[in-house]
DNA sequence: ATAGAAATAT
DNA sequence: TATATTTCTA
């Protein structure tokens, strides 16, 4: 229960960044530079050498988390943020890939507070009394006689350490607007037709995100789309602030049919779906780096009212597929920037 | 084995 | 209540 974690797009990773060679965007102030960066990025790969190795200078997130201190150089973080922002902006304006330009409504923009505002773990002040035995929990007649370790099953309590515990349940994932956006972008690319949980999950490239997470979200999203269509008008239904916050790409309109092949998509699909020479993915990697959900320590304990969403810019960070350096040989539970605080490493599922 | 939908849980 | 997760079915 009480462990909700917000996905945030920051990931300060110590870094072996060889695998991904993502864009370590350095702070750039002039548009020219930005363009250049973008070009480089698009063309081939950014040279990490040239860029500031941000991933280096940071304090091991574990420590930071452990002591509830702001990671380190906000400065750096901001720079990253800003750089990302510029980069993305450029991409948009140049009509490059997957960024839908429809960001008219909601202004997701916020400033680069990111690091100043702790990304907060959902308020959710502990389940407290909870439902006070309202509905009968109907047990599905699944009762397979497996007593299994009748044992005290899961220590509902804080599940302190328990390294031995294997599959502990994941904390509830919170779909932040950013995360959702990523989701939408990916779905848009795939086209409603190919957008199935597994694929989406893969393309989203978010560590710790499970297929189930995506499936569930997709389910909701579809319902949302449906309702939207039904009303034909935009009708910013009060419900689903989240969904409303991200414009629905046109490609995601009709189900079935070819999806977004023809000129339909807003330049989303580079036209690779066809049997062209270069088949493969239109977008090998929609996002430069794997997004790593991060668990921010709760700074202000209760008492401070945390605003709902912290929009932060896209803080795509350099990261390597290798994931974290094995810092935590075994005991370290401060899961660094893992979405889920304690226990378990994110997706270990071998596909 | 996976997607989609329904039921639960928080 | 809303929304994420789990279960169940196709």
UniProtKB/TrEMBL annotation:
NCBIfam families: myb_SHAQKYF. Residues 1-26, 119-165 are annotated as: Disordered. One of its GO terms (molecular function) is DNA binding. One of its GO terms (cellular component) is nucleus. This is Transcription factor PCL1. Residues 175-226 form the HTH myb-type domain. Keywords: Nucleus, Transcription, Transcription regulation. Pfam families: Myb_DNA-binding. It is found in: Nucleus. Its main location: nucleus. InterPro entries: Homeodomain-like_sf, LUX/BOA-like, Myb_dom, Myb_dom_plants, SANT/Myb.
């Amino acid at each position: 229960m009480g462990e909700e974690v917000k996905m945030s797009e920051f990931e300060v990773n110590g870094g072996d960044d060889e695998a991904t060679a993502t864009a370590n965007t350095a702070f750039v102030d002039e548009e020219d530079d930005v363009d250049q960066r973008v070009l480089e990025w698009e063309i081939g790969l950014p040279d990490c050498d040239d860029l500031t190795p941000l991933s280096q200078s940071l304090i091991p997130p574990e420590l930071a988390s452990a002591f509830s201190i702001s990671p380190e150089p906000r400065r750096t973080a901001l720079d990253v943020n800003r750089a990302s922002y510029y980069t993305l902006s450029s991409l948009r304006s140049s009509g490059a890939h997957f960024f839908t330009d429809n960001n008219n409504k909601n202004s997701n923009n916020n400033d680069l507070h990111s690091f100043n505002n702790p990304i907060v773990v959902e308020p959710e002040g502990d389940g407290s009394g909870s439902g006070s035995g309202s509905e009968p929990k109907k047990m599905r007649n699944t009762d397979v006689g497996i007593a299994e370790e009748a044992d005290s099953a899961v220590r509902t309590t804080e599940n302190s350490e328990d390294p031995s515990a294997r599959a502990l349940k994941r904390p509830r994932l919170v779909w932040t607007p950013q995360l959702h956006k990523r989701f939408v972008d990916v779905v848009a690319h795939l086209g409603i037709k190919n957008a199935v949980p597994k694929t989406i999950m893969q393309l989203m490239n978010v560590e710790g995100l499970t297929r189930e997470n995506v499936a569930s979200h997709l389910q909701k999203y579809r319902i949302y789309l449906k309702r939207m269509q039904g009303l034909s008008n935009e009708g910013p239904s009060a419900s689903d602030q989240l969904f409303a916050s991200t414009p629905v790409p046109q490609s995601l309109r009709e189900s079935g049919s070819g999806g977004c092949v023809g000129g339909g998509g807003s330049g989303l699909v580079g036209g690779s779906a066809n049997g062209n020479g270069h088949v493969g993915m239109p977008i090998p990697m929609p996002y430069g780096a794997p997004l790593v959900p991060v668990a921010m320590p709760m700074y202000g304990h209760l008492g401070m009212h945390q605003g709902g969403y912290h929009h932060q810019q896209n803080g795509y960070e350099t990261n390597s597929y290798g994931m974290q350096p094995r810092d935590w040989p075994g005991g370290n539970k401060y899961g660094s920037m893992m979405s889920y605080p304690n226990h378990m490493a994110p997706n270990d599922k071998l596909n």
